[in-house]
Amino acid sequence: MRSFFTSRNFKIFITVLVLLLISCFVAIFAISKSAAATSVAGTALSPIQRAAVFITDKVGSVFAPFKSVEKLQSQIDEKDKQLEKYREQLVDYEKMKKKISLYEETLNISEENPEYNLLGAAITGRNPSDKFGSFTISKGQLSGVKVNDPVVYGKYLVGVVKSVKPNYSVVLGVTDPQVKISVYDIVSSDSGFITNTVEVASEGNSQIANLDRKSKMAVGDIICTTGIGEVYPRDLIIGEISEIRDNEDVISRSAIIKPYIDISKITNVFVMTDR
Amino acid sequence: METMSYRREIVTSETNSRPLVVRRVWLVLIIIVTAVLQNTGVFPPEIFGFSALPLLPLAICISMFEREWAGTLICVLAGVLCDIPLATGDGFYAIFFLIICFITSLLITSRMRNNLMTAFLIGFVACLLQAVLYWLIFYIFKGYGQTLFFAYYLPCAIYTFLFMPIFYFIVRAIFAKYQTEN
């Protein structure tokens, strides 16, 4: 037994364990919230991840026309190739329209918030261990991204940067229990804080907790950020109220918010960094 | 079931170094490819909303075949790559993989035979332990509630465990091809 503790293998094990623990403690207090080993590995792996996502998207788009052709041909007997070509062009046109609409919304956000820079970033990965959809983006410290920078998709708030590495960052979604946002109802002007519980977040929703019973928030109202605290700019849209629930204490209520943007379906976002 | 056991190689001669290096390069490449596929969500796909962590069974299989310190260090690489998409708690998987793989390596060296049944046993315990620890550290200790374990993390652990036999045969094949002499 004694020889085990004096063996080379055990010494190497203890050395590596101590180094990792020191790295973890440093990460807790570091501004970037990241450990050295993870930063180095992630920086090296980030370009490969971006390439993998790019290839996956391209392979997926190769098969899409075949699915379209198969679906169309089941619905229509006789179509000539000209009509098929026009339909493909229409799809390209619609995609371009959506992109332009997104850029217009982003430009509006940029003009309304001149103190921020809008930095485009691709979503390069998702955390398989996280139930609430945190994701990694392709911009990090070297591009000026900092912890707590808001992440938007057009005029919609989709998350906040939680940890930053040299060339990538990890973002928490608005439904994550760790995220707290000061918000208001644009119809009733009532304000509150988004404080998500695990149960609500598991449904893919956010929640404004502890609403006064006299609150005028109602189903269908749109919820935006207030800008209080200067973490999130004002008037970024989060979603709409889908349900008002009574809390167990009966005195207060909670408003359940359905985010407009499904994080799992978007591939690009913008990070609002300080000028 | 046919059981096969592999003896640990002890490299004593410089002529064994080439297959050793090639083998370890292959293992590192497989870890990197698996990490990229896992972290980008390309593979394995989500099933009913549950995701898997294939790097964990891969690391355990490597530590069953590779020598203690070498296998452990390769497995720490797998852990560091698992830490990349973590928002908080950098180093969790690195430390977890270090401890689990070191213990696995010791068990195979001194107490257990290296075969598929042992891989299943160790893999099951490791997947369950990973789920429990992640849930405890990132949810319970933060006061977020107890509902997620059976609803999400336990199914994810089971899904992760399904990759044990796949990686066991892959790693065993690599070791068979690049076996070094005693």
Could you characterize the architecture of this molecule?
The complex is a heterodimer of chains A (275) and B (182). Chain A is built from 5 helices and 12 strands. Chain A has helices spanning 2-5, 8-29, 36-75, 81-112, 198-202; strands at residues 116-126, 135-137, 150-153, 156-164, 169-173, 180-185, 191-195, 206-212, 222-225, 237-246, 252-259, 268-274. In chain A, strand 3 and strand 4 form a beta hairpin. The radius of gyration of chain A is 23 Å and the shape is globular. Helix content of chain B is 68%, strand content 0%. Chain B has helices at 17-40, 55-65, 68-83, 92-110, 116-140, 148-161, 164-177. The longest helix of chain B has 25 residues, at 116-140. The radius of gyration of chain B is 17 Å and the shape is globular.
Query: Helical region count of chain B?
Result: 7
Low-pLDDT residue intervals, each spanning 5 or more residues of chain A: none
**Rg of chain B to the nearest angstrom?**
17 Å
Strand coverage percent of chain B: under 5%
Bin the strand percentage of chain A. 25-35%
Strand order of the largest sheet of chain A: 1-2-5-4-3-12
The percentage helix of chain A is 25-40%
Measure the end-to-end span of chain A. Answer: 61 Å
Written as H for each helix and E for each strand, in order along the chain, the element string of chain B is HHHHHHH
Structural class of chain A: alpha+beta
Briefly characterize the structure.
Chain A is an alpha+beta fold and 275 residues long.
Topology:
The complex is a heterodimer of chains A (275) and B (182).
Chain A: H1 2-5, H2 8-29, H3 36-75, H4 81-112, E1 116-126, E2 135-137, E3 150-153, E4 156-164, E5 169-173, E6 180-185, E7 191-195, H5 198-202, E8 206-212, E9 222-225, E10 237-246, E11 252-259, E12 268-274
Antiparallel strand pairs in A: 1-2, 1-12, 2-5, 3-4, 3-12, 4-5, 6-7, 6-9, 8-11, 9-10, 10-11
Chain B: H1 17-40, H2 55-65, H3 68-83, H4 92-110, H5 116-140, H6 148-161, H7 164-177
Helix pairs in contact in B: 1-2, 1-3, 2-3, 2-4, 2-5, 2-7, 3-4, 4-5, 5-6
